[in-house]
């Protein structure tokens, strides 16, 4: 005999469908609304940093931020009560981001003059990754994640190589260039080398000797290759995985379930075919 669900259980189920359902009309509408509110929140934070605008519309901006904060607070509470494992959500990455983004407005009662806290509200922008985690993007995201994980060691070795090169060339420039040209210490010279190597080129420090300019030219040319290497490593891993068919099937287009076996032909959750999921 089936046990009749209580009103609270039915409420939890409906909230779960709305918040976590990506294929239901209510779930899609909630995601669109959440996307708009997140962008509006970040826009308000940016306007608050403009003194002329903030001085004129300060009360209006604060009112908007309170409305947005209350919306996110209600959403945060609903996410907790609608899941079977609330602590898993609270301690998850997005759960922590959700909580931190709520705190500035409430802490403003105790620190009303602090502007540093307003920047924390911009963390809500990270929630776009969760909102945009739609089914049609899940397969591509899975492929990219696997490629980055597979090439992680190569990228770490490459970054270590760049770090060593920056120290060595920075030390060389410290010896070659006179102190009045800006190369006053080895750390400063390393800073210049990193700026030049990444092709940023602030121009606050520049070599004046012929040998220094030759070394700088070499670093500039080397910088173009350094920028391309990490991209090439990940791209090669993507191509290798695709050619050898090592990637897992993508998310199920029907229910969005991921992490299937390599040989899986059907979704283990809903039974939908995985042939077109990748």
Explained architecture:
By secondary structure, the protein is an all-alpha fold. 67% of the residues lie in helices and 0% in strands. α1 packs across α2 (25-48). It is flat and about 85 Å long. 16% of the residues are buried. Residues 245-249 have low confidence and may be disordered.
Helix segment tally: 11
Euclidean distance between termini CA atoms: 42 Å
Query: Unreliable runs, pLDDT <50, ≥5 residues?
Result: 245-249
What is the beta-strand fraction? Answer: under 5%
Shape: flat
For the secondary structure, the number of strands is 0
Gyration radius (Cα, Å) is 26 Å
Mean pLDDT: 79
Give the helices and strands as they follow along the chain: HHHHHHHHHHH
Kindly state the percentage of residues in helix: 55-70%
Largest sheet: none
Q: How does the helix and strand content classify structurally? A: mainly alpha
List its traits:
single chain; 278 residues; mainly alpha; 11 helices; 0% strand
Question: What's the SSE blueprint?
Answer:
Layout lengths: L6 H14 L4 H24 L2 H32 L3 H5 L2 H15 L8 H5 L7 H4 L3 H16 L1 H25 L9 H12 L12 H34 L35
Summarize, please:
With 278 residues, this protein is an all-alpha fold. It is built from 11 helices and no strands.
């Amino acid at each position: 005999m089936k046990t009749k669900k209580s009103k609270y259980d039915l409420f939890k189920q409906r909230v779960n469908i709305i918040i976590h359902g990506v294929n239901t009309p209510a779930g899609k509408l909630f995601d669109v609304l959440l996307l708009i509110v997140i962008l509006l929140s970040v826009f308000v934070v940016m306007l608050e940093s403009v003194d002329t605008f903030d001085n004129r519309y300060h009360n209006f901006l604060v009112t908007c931020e309170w409305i947005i904060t209350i919306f996110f607070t209600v959403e945060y509470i609903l996410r907790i009560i609608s899941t079977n494992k609330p602590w898993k959500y609270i301690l998850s990455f997005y759960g922590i981001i959700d909580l931190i983004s709520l705190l500035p407005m409430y802490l403003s009662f105790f620190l009303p003059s602090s502007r540093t806290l307003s920047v924390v509200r911009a963390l809500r922008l990270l929630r776009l990754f969760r909102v945009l985690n739609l089914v049609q993007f899940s397969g591509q995201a899975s492929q990219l994640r696997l490629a980055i994980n597979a090439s992680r060691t190569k990228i770490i070795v490459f970054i270590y190589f760049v770090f060593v090169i920056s120290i060595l060339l920075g030390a060389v420039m410290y010896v070659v260039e006179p102190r009045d040209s800006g190369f006053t210490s080895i750390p400063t010279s390393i800073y210049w080398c990193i700026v030049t190597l990444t092709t940023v080129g602030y121009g606050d420090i520049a070599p004046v000797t012929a040998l220094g300019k030759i070394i700088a030219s070499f670093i500039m040319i080397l910088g173009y290759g350094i920028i391309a290497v990490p991209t090439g490593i990940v791209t090669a891993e993507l191509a290798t995985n695709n050619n050898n068919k090592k990637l897992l099937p993508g998310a199920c287009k029907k229910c969005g379930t991921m992490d299937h076996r390599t040989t899986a032909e059907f979704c283990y959750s809903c039974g939908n075919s995985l042939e077109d999921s990748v």
